[in-house]
Design a protein that fits this description.
alpha+beta, six-stranded mixed β-sheet, about 375 residues, 12 strands
Length: about 375
């Protein structure tokens, strides 16, 4: 007899819908992260040290480390376990034994955010897909054309898609796989309407209710900062076509770079940025309101001047710090102080927020540069 072997089909994972209101409540009843035994931690540490240090320095290093393990190590381990046990009993922050240490590491960091703690990734080009979605009669066919081009429509569809996703979170929650194992999605609550506030010594995190933050975005071009509303007078979201027109107006109204690019200062040492922002806020109620608009924005969209296309020598610096170009410079300091002269895209950033960066090519290249302190592991 004969039998037919049918190909095995991978079954979709079992999922549970976590309501938005419960997203930070451990809705899936996940267990706390277990604390490794001291001996296991020591073994992993020694293995990593041997992999990265020169052989001539390893023995002395391990000798010092072993002395710590024999003397202070057990005390530190005991304190760690006791602190975690207390937090577990209270059901309060920190929700794992590393969470508060991890937050301290990021928020206490005083160096510049770019590259160090502001990673980025790029997507496949969206230009061809945009051409499928947009009627040719509505798409610009040259730099002097008054209609929105690929850059504007790419940014518009990305923003509109993000808003739809966020609205789905509010309306129906998020589907989470629970087999073979569930995972924590509480970090999703930190992705929109969040900002890192520069403070002397240690930064803080500012959160705005998601529904409120979805009402506007921040758009930047050549260092200029614009607030763009995303809802009409009836509360409905603007269409990609309407958003693209707004973005086109921003491009045409900013032919030259801003005289003082505030966002660029967010890329400097944190204490310097904290001092600068505090001075600006205290000097004017208008400045205070402007900062609040940025802090409460759903996200930041950076419309860059450079054309990355498919050139990786342009994409990599572009998505991290902006492409340095020789055809435009801008001051990143007030006129009364010593100015630094840099390219327009370098100052077209706001590192305290998640940023959607769209290049100026017909390829439709998009990158996301995200603030890492409240987004790790998501």
């Amino acid at each position: 007899s004969f039998c037919t072997l049918l190909p095995l089909r991978k079954m979709p994972p079992k999922t549970v819908t976590v309501p938005w209101a419960q997203i930070t409540s451990n809705y899936l009843k996940l267990p706390r992260l277990p604390i490794p035994k001291l001996a296991d931690t020591a073994a992993r540490y020694e293995a990593s040290v041997r992999a990265i240090k020169k052989q001539s320095t390893i023995d002395n290093h391990i000798a010092v480390f072993n002395k710590f393990i024999e003397t202070d190590g057990p005390k530190v381990q005991k304190a760690l376990v006791e602190r975690d046990t207390t937090a577990a009993a209270l059901g309060a922050y920190p929700f794992s034994y590393i969470e508060n240490h991890w937050d301290d590491m990021y928020l206490n960091y005083r160096g510049p955010s770019p590259v160090n703690i502001a990673p980025a990734f790029t997507m496949k080009p969206l230009g061809d897909r945009i051409r499928e979605l947009v009627d040719p009669s509505e798409l610009a066919h040259g730099p002097s054309d008054h209609r929105p081009g690929i850059q504007c429509f790419t940014a518009a569809y990305i923003v509109h898609g993000m808003l739809r996703f966020a609205q789905k979170l509010l309306d129906t929650g998020i589907d989470v796989a629970v087999e073979p194992v569930g995972f924590d999605v509480s970090g999703m609550s930190h992705q929109f309407g969040f900002t890192r506030l520069p403070c002397a010594g240690r930064d803080s995190i500012k959160q705005v209710e998601l529904k409120h933050s979805m009402g506007h975005i921040i758009v930047m071009h050549r260092g200029h900062v614009f607030r763009v509303n995303t809802r009409d007078e009836n509360g409905g979201y603007y269409t990609p076509k309407q958003l693209a027109r707004a973005f086109r107006n921003i491009l045409t109204s900013t032919p030259s770079q801003a005289s003082f690019c505030v966002g660029a200062v967010s890329g400097g040492p944190r204490d310097e940025w904290a001092t600068t922002r505090k001075l600006m806020e205290s000097g004017s109620d208008t400045n205070d309101a402007y900062f609040d608009s940025v802090d409460s924005a759903f996200t930041v969209v950076c419309l860059d001047s450079a054309t990355w296309g498919n050139d990786h020598s342009q994409i990599l610096p572009g998505m991290l710090t902006g492409v340095v170009r020789g055809d435009g410079v801008v001051s990143t300091a007030p006129p009364s102080s010593t100015s630094k002269r840099v390219s327009d895209d370098v100052v077209n950033r706001w590192y305290d927020k998640h940023m959607v960066i769209v290049d100026n090519s017909d390829v439709g290249r998009v990158a996301c540069n995200f603030e890492h302190a409240f987004s790790d592991g998501l």
